[in-house]
From TrEMBL:
Belongs to the ABC transporter superfamily. It comes from Gracilibacillus salitolerans. GO terms for molecular function: ATP binding; ATP hydrolysis activity. GO terms for biological process: peptide transport; transmembrane transport. The keyword Mitochondrion does not apply. This is ATP-binding cassette domain-containing protein.
Length: 306
Protein backbone atom coordinates (compact mmCIF):
# COMPACT_ATOMS: atom_id res chain seq x y z
CA UNK A 1 0.00 0.00 0.00
CA UNK A 2 1.06 3.55 -0.74
CA UNK A 3 2.18 5.05 2.55
CA UNK A 4 1.86 8.70 1.65
CA UNK A 5 -0.24 10.41 4.31
CA UNK A 6 -3.14 12.38 2.92
CA UNK A 7 -4.68 13.12 6.34
CA UNK A 8 -3.16 13.41 9.80
CA UNK A 9 -5.44 13.79 12.79
CA UNK A 10 -3.56 14.76 15.94
CA UNK A 11 -5.10 14.76 19.38
CA UNK A 12 -8.37 16.07 17.99
CA UNK A 13 -11.02 17.16 20.49
CA UNK A 14 -14.57 18.28 19.95
CA UNK A 15 -16.35 19.26 23.14
CA UNK A 16 -19.87 20.64 22.96
CA UNK A 17 -21.04 23.06 25.60
CA UNK A 18 -24.55 21.80 26.32
CA UNK A 19 -25.36 23.87 29.39
CA UNK A 20 -23.70 26.42 31.61
CA UNK A 21 -21.67 23.73 33.31
CA UNK A 22 -22.19 20.70 31.12
CA UNK A 23 -19.94 19.64 28.32
CA UNK A 24 -20.27 16.64 26.01
CA UNK A 25 -16.85 15.34 25.09
CA UNK A 26 -17.99 13.92 21.75
CA UNK A 27 -14.42 13.53 20.51
CA UNK A 28 -11.82 13.44 23.22
CA UNK A 29 -8.28 13.34 21.88
CA UNK A 30 -8.03 11.05 18.89
CA UNK A 31 -5.06 10.59 16.57
CA UNK A 32 -4.69 8.67 13.34
CA UNK A 33 -3.26 8.97 9.83
CA UNK A 34 -4.99 8.06 6.60
CA UNK A 35 -2.92 7.05 3.57
CA UNK A 36 -3.65 8.14 0.03
CA UNK A 37 -5.86 5.64 -1.80
CA UNK A 38 -6.92 3.61 1.22
CA UNK A 39 -10.28 3.13 2.91
CA UNK A 40 -10.10 3.86 6.59
CA UNK A 41 -13.07 2.51 8.54
CA UNK A 42 -14.24 4.28 11.71
CA UNK A 43 -16.55 2.10 13.73
CA UNK A 44 -18.45 2.37 16.99
CA UNK A 45 -21.90 2.41 18.49
CA UNK A 46 -24.35 5.27 18.18
CA UNK A 47 -23.18 8.30 20.15
CA UNK A 48 -19.49 7.36 20.32
CA UNK A 49 -18.50 10.42 18.29
CA UNK A 50 -17.99 9.05 14.77
CA UNK A 51 -20.10 11.63 12.95
CA UNK A 52 -18.64 14.44 15.00
CA UNK A 53 -15.17 13.25 14.02
CA UNK A 54 -16.11 13.33 10.31
CA UNK A 55 -17.81 16.69 10.59
CA UNK A 56 -14.89 18.22 12.44
CA UNK A 57 -12.38 16.89 9.91
CA UNK A 58 -14.31 18.47 7.04
CA UNK A 59 -14.70 21.72 9.02
CA UNK A 60 -18.47 21.63 9.48
CA UNK A 61 -17.42 22.24 13.11
CA UNK A 62 -14.44 24.15 14.43
CA UNK A 63 -12.23 21.83 16.49
CA UNK A 64 -12.04 22.44 20.23
CA UNK A 65 -8.35 21.57 19.98
CA UNK A 66 -5.95 19.41 18.04
CA UNK A 67 -4.88 19.33 14.43
CA UNK A 68 -6.24 18.07 11.14
CA UNK A 69 -3.61 18.17 8.42
CA UNK A 70 -4.84 17.52 4.92
CA UNK A 71 -2.20 17.33 2.20
CA UNK A 72 0.13 18.91 4.75
CA UNK A 73 -2.10 21.91 5.54
CA UNK A 74 -3.65 22.35 8.99
CA UNK A 75 -7.27 22.89 7.99
CA UNK A 76 -8.28 24.32 11.37
CA UNK A 77 -5.31 26.63 11.55
CA UNK A 78 -4.75 29.88 9.70
CA UNK A 79 -4.75 29.40 5.99
CA UNK A 80 -5.27 31.40 2.83
CA UNK A 81 -8.62 31.71 1.05
CA UNK A 82 -7.11 29.80 -1.82
CA UNK A 83 -6.10 26.87 0.41
CA UNK A 84 -9.55 26.83 1.98
CA UNK A 85 -11.29 26.81 -1.38
CA UNK A 86 -9.06 24.00 -2.54
CA UNK A 87 -9.78 22.06 0.64
CA UNK A 88 -13.53 22.55 0.20
CA UNK A 89 -13.26 20.97 -3.21
CA UNK A 90 -10.80 18.21 -2.42
CA UNK A 91 -12.73 16.84 0.56
CA UNK A 92 -16.38 15.86 0.08
CA UNK A 93 -18.94 14.09 2.23
CA UNK A 94 -21.63 11.49 1.62
CA UNK A 95 -24.37 11.27 4.25
CA UNK A 96 -26.34 8.50 5.87
CA UNK A 97 -29.75 9.71 4.84
CA UNK A 98 -29.50 10.61 1.18
CA UNK A 99 -33.02 12.01 1.21
CA UNK A 100 -32.41 14.49 4.00
CA UNK A 101 -29.16 15.61 2.40
CA UNK A 102 -30.63 16.28 -1.06
CA UNK A 103 -32.61 19.49 -1.51
CA UNK A 104 -36.15 18.33 -2.49
CA UNK A 105 -36.75 21.44 -4.59
CA UNK A 106 -33.73 20.96 -6.80
CA UNK A 107 -33.53 18.69 -9.82
CA UNK A 108 -30.81 16.07 -9.93
CA UNK A 109 -28.97 18.20 -12.46
CA UNK A 110 -29.05 21.24 -10.18
CA UNK A 111 -27.91 19.14 -7.22
CA UNK A 112 -24.96 17.71 -9.11
CA UNK A 113 -24.00 21.06 -10.60
CA UNK A 114 -24.02 22.99 -7.32
CA UNK A 115 -20.39 22.29 -6.43
CA UNK A 116 -19.28 22.78 -10.03
CA UNK A 117 -20.87 26.27 -10.00
CA UNK A 118 -19.45 27.21 -6.59
CA UNK A 119 -15.97 26.29 -7.71
CA UNK A 120 -16.45 27.71 -11.22
CA UNK A 121 -15.22 24.48 -12.77
CA UNK A 122 -17.31 24.56 -15.96
CA UNK A 123 -18.87 27.65 -17.53
CA UNK A 124 -20.27 26.41 -20.79
CA UNK A 125 -23.93 25.19 -20.58
CA UNK A 126 -23.60 22.24 -22.93
CA UNK A 127 -20.39 21.17 -21.15
CA UNK A 128 -22.31 21.26 -17.86
CA UNK A 129 -25.07 19.04 -19.26
CA UNK A 130 -22.48 16.68 -20.65
CA UNK A 131 -20.70 16.48 -17.29
CA UNK A 132 -23.96 15.75 -15.43
CA UNK A 133 -24.80 12.96 -17.88
CA UNK A 134 -21.33 11.54 -17.54
CA UNK A 135 -21.59 11.57 -13.72
CA UNK A 136 -25.02 9.93 -13.80
CA UNK A 137 -23.59 7.21 -16.00
CA UNK A 138 -20.62 6.78 -13.64
CA UNK A 139 -22.90 6.09 -10.68
CA UNK A 140 -25.21 3.76 -12.60
CA UNK A 141 -28.08 6.16 -13.31
CA UNK A 142 -29.06 7.50 -16.72
CA UNK A 143 -29.32 10.91 -18.33
CA UNK A 144 -33.13 10.98 -18.22
CA UNK A 145 -32.79 11.19 -14.44
CA UNK A 146 -31.23 14.66 -14.65
CA UNK A 147 -34.53 16.54 -14.74
CA UNK A 148 -36.19 14.59 -11.94
CA UNK A 149 -36.46 15.42 -8.22
CA UNK A 150 -35.07 13.41 -5.27
CA UNK A 151 -38.48 12.06 -4.13
CA UNK A 152 -38.82 10.21 -7.44
CA UNK A 153 -35.96 7.88 -6.53
CA UNK A 154 -35.43 4.86 -4.29
CA UNK A 155 -33.04 5.03 -1.33
CA UNK A 156 -30.23 3.33 -3.23
CA UNK A 157 -30.68 5.65 -6.22
CA UNK A 158 -30.65 8.69 -3.95
CA UNK A 159 -27.38 7.56 -2.48
CA UNK A 160 -26.05 7.28 -6.03
CA UNK A 161 -27.11 10.90 -6.60
CA UNK A 162 -25.28 11.86 -3.40
CA UNK A 163 -22.18 10.08 -4.69
CA UNK A 164 -22.45 11.82 -8.08
CA UNK A 165 -22.72 15.17 -6.29
CA UNK A 166 -19.58 14.41 -4.27
CA UNK A 167 -17.68 13.26 -7.36
CA UNK A 168 -18.70 16.30 -9.44
CA UNK A 169 -15.88 18.48 -8.12
CA UNK A 170 -13.26 15.77 -8.60
CA UNK A 171 -12.32 15.30 -4.93
CA UNK A 172 -9.37 13.37 -3.52
CA UNK A 173 -10.97 12.40 -0.24
CA UNK A 174 -14.53 11.39 0.64
CA UNK A 175 -15.98 11.08 4.12
CA UNK A 176 -18.81 8.58 3.91
CA UNK A 177 -20.89 8.88 7.09
CA UNK A 178 -22.85 5.63 7.37
CA UNK A 179 -23.63 5.75 3.64
CA UNK A 180 -25.43 2.41 3.58
CA UNK A 181 -27.06 2.19 7.02
CA UNK A 182 -30.40 3.52 5.80
CA UNK A 183 -30.53 1.18 2.80
CA UNK A 184 -32.04 -2.28 2.37
CA UNK A 185 -29.47 -5.02 2.87
CA UNK A 186 -29.83 -6.08 -0.77
CA UNK A 187 -28.92 -2.56 -1.92
CA UNK A 188 -26.05 -2.04 0.55
CA UNK A 189 -23.62 -4.28 -1.34
CA UNK A 190 -24.39 -2.51 -4.62
CA UNK A 191 -23.54 0.89 -3.18
CA UNK A 192 -20.39 -0.44 -1.50
CA UNK A 193 -19.29 -2.06 -4.76
CA UNK A 194 -19.91 1.17 -6.63
CA UNK A 195 -17.79 3.03 -4.07
CA UNK A 196 -15.00 0.49 -4.48
CA UNK A 197 -15.03 0.80 -8.27
CA UNK A 198 -14.99 4.59 -8.07
CA UNK A 199 -12.11 4.45 -5.65
CA UNK A 200 -10.05 2.44 -8.13
CA UNK A 201 -10.95 4.60 -11.11
CA UNK A 202 -10.44 7.96 -9.43
CA UNK A 203 -7.75 7.12 -6.90
CA UNK A 204 -10.04 8.22 -4.05
CA UNK A 205 -9.31 7.97 -0.35
CA UNK A 206 -12.25 7.15 1.94
CA UNK A 207 -13.03 7.69 5.58
CA UNK A 208 -15.87 5.20 5.94
CA UNK A 209 -17.97 5.61 9.08
CA UNK A 210 -20.17 2.75 10.28
CA UNK A 211 -21.81 1.50 13.47
CA UNK A 212 -21.06 -2.19 13.02
CA UNK A 213 -18.18 -4.16 11.68
CA UNK A 214 -19.92 -6.34 9.10
CA UNK A 215 -19.70 -4.28 5.89
CA UNK A 216 -16.70 -2.25 7.04
CA UNK A 217 -14.41 -5.25 6.95
CA UNK A 218 -15.29 -5.76 3.32
CA UNK A 219 -14.43 -2.24 2.25
CA UNK A 220 -11.70 -1.06 4.66
CA UNK A 221 -7.94 -1.48 4.54
CA UNK A 222 -7.61 -0.38 8.14
CA UNK A 223 -10.16 0.10 10.89
CA UNK A 224 -10.31 2.28 13.98
CA UNK A 225 -12.76 1.36 16.73
CA UNK A 226 -14.19 4.26 18.68
CA UNK A 227 -15.75 4.22 22.12
CA UNK A 228 -16.95 7.27 24.04
CA UNK A 229 -14.95 9.83 22.11
CA UNK A 230 -11.72 7.86 21.98
CA UNK A 231 -10.16 5.34 19.64
CA UNK A 232 -9.66 2.10 21.54
CA UNK A 233 -8.07 0.02 18.78
CA UNK A 234 -6.66 0.54 15.30
CA UNK A 235 -5.27 -2.11 12.96
CA UNK A 236 -5.35 -3.55 9.45
CA UNK A 237 -8.82 -5.00 8.82
CA UNK A 238 -7.68 -8.61 8.78
CA UNK A 239 -5.58 -8.17 11.89
CA UNK A 240 -8.47 -6.54 13.74
CA UNK A 241 -10.76 -9.44 12.89
CA UNK A 242 -8.27 -12.18 13.56
CA UNK A 243 -6.59 -10.75 16.59
CA UNK A 244 -8.83 -8.24 18.35
CA UNK A 245 -7.29 -7.16 21.65
CA UNK A 246 -9.43 -4.50 23.25
CA UNK A 247 -12.50 -5.97 25.01
CA UNK A 248 -14.76 -3.43 23.32
CA UNK A 249 -13.58 -4.54 19.86
CA UNK A 250 -14.24 -8.12 20.90
CA UNK A 251 -17.77 -7.24 21.94
CA UNK A 252 -18.41 -5.48 18.61
CA UNK A 253 -17.10 -8.49 16.70
CA UNK A 254 -19.23 -10.87 18.71
CA UNK A 255 -22.30 -8.88 17.67
CA UNK A 256 -21.88 -9.40 13.91
CA UNK A 257 -24.67 -11.65 12.66
CA UNK A 258 -23.42 -14.62 10.63
CA UNK A 259 -25.41 -16.64 8.11
CA UNK A 260 -24.50 -19.94 9.80
CA UNK A 261 -27.30 -20.99 12.22
CA UNK A 262 -25.15 -23.59 14.04
CA UNK A 263 -22.54 -21.00 14.73
CA UNK A 264 -25.20 -18.49 15.75
CA UNK A 265 -26.70 -20.92 18.26
CA UNK A 266 -23.39 -21.75 19.90
CA UNK A 267 -21.50 -18.56 19.81
CA UNK A 268 -20.86 -16.45 22.85
CA UNK A 269 -21.72 -12.81 22.83
CA UNK A 270 -19.33 -10.75 24.90
CA UNK A 271 -20.45 -7.51 26.44
CA UNK A 272 -17.97 -4.79 27.21
CA UNK A 273 -18.07 -3.49 30.74
CA UNK A 274 -15.94 -0.35 31.04
CA UNK A 275 -16.19 -0.53 34.84
CA UNK A 276 -13.89 -3.54 34.74
CA UNK A 277 -11.34 -1.69 32.73
CA UNK A 278 -8.74 0.83 33.84
CA UNK A 279 -9.41 3.56 31.30
CA UNK A 280 -7.77 6.25 33.43
CA UNK A 281 -4.24 4.92 32.96
CA UNK A 282 -4.76 3.69 29.45
CA UNK A 283 -2.67 5.07 26.62
CA UNK A 284 -2.73 4.42 22.91
CA UNK A 285 0.13 1.94 22.43
CA UNK A 286 1.47 0.11 19.38
CA UNK A 287 1.34 -3.56 20.27
CA UNK A 288 2.84 -4.68 16.98
CA UNK A 289 3.58 -2.72 13.82
CA UNK A 290 0.40 -0.95 12.81
CA UNK A 291 -1.75 -2.47 15.58
CA UNK A 292 -2.60 0.09 18.26
CA UNK A 293 -4.63 -0.43 21.42
CA UNK A 294 -5.76 1.88 24.19
CA UNK A 295 -4.38 0.00 27.18
CA UNK A 296 -2.43 0.14 30.42
CA UNK A 297 1.22 -0.87 30.73
CA UNK A 298 0.21 -4.28 32.15
CA UNK A 299 -2.30 -4.97 29.39
CA UNK A 300 0.29 -3.92 26.84
CA UNK A 301 2.64 -6.64 28.08
CA UNK A 302 -0.02 -9.34 27.83
CA UNK A 303 -1.18 -8.14 24.40
CA UNK A 304 2.34 -8.33 23.01
CA UNK A 305 2.60 -12.06 23.53
CA UNK A 306 -0.76 -12.79 21.89
N1 LIG B 1 -24.03 19.73 17.99
C1 LIG B 1 -24.01 19.02 19.13
N2 LIG B 1 -24.23 19.61 20.33
C2 LIG B 1 -24.20 18.90 21.47
N3 LIG B 1 -23.93 17.59 21.54
C3 LIG B 1 -23.70 16.93 20.39
C4 LIG B 1 -23.73 17.62 19.12
N4 LIG B 1 -23.46 16.72 18.15
C5 LIG B 1 -23.26 15.53 18.78
N5 LIG B 1 -23.41 15.67 20.11
C6 LIG B 1 -23.23 14.59 21.11
O1 LIG B 1 -21.93 14.07 20.94
C7 LIG B 1 -21.94 12.67 21.12
C8 LIG B 1 -21.40 12.01 19.86
O2 LIG B 1 -22.32 12.18 18.79
P1 LIG B 1 -22.06 11.68 17.31
O3 LIG B 1 -23.29 12.00 16.49
O4 LIG B 1 -20.78 12.14 16.83
O5 LIG B 1 -21.98 10.10 17.52
P2 LIG B 1 -22.10 8.96 16.48
O6 LIG B 1 -21.19 7.91 16.95
O7 LIG B 1 -21.90 9.47 15.10
O8 LIG B 1 -23.58 8.48 16.64
P3 LIG B 1 -24.70 8.23 15.54
O9 LIG B 1 -24.28 7.00 14.82
O10 LIG B 1 -25.94 8.05 16.37
O11 LIG B 1 -24.73 9.47 14.69
C9 LIG B 1 -23.35 12.27 21.45
O12 LIG B 1 -23.45 12.20 22.85
C10 LIG B 1 -24.17 13.41 20.91
O13 LIG B 1 -25.36 13.57 21.65
Amino acid sequence: MNKEKILEVKNLKQHFQTGRKSVVKAVDGISFDIYRGETFGLVGESGCGKSTTGRTIIRLYDATSGEVNFNGIDVHGRKSKKDLKQFNRQMQMIFQDPYASLNPRMTVKEIILEGIQIHGLINNESEKTKRVEELLDTVGLNKEHATRYPHEFSGGQRQRIGIARALAVDPEFIIADEPISALDVSIQAQVVNLMKELQKEHGLTYLFIAHDLSMVKYISDRIAVMYFGRIVELADSDELYENPLHPYTKSLLSAIPLPDPDFERNRKRTVYDPAQHDTENAEFREVKPGHWVLCTEEEYKTYQVK
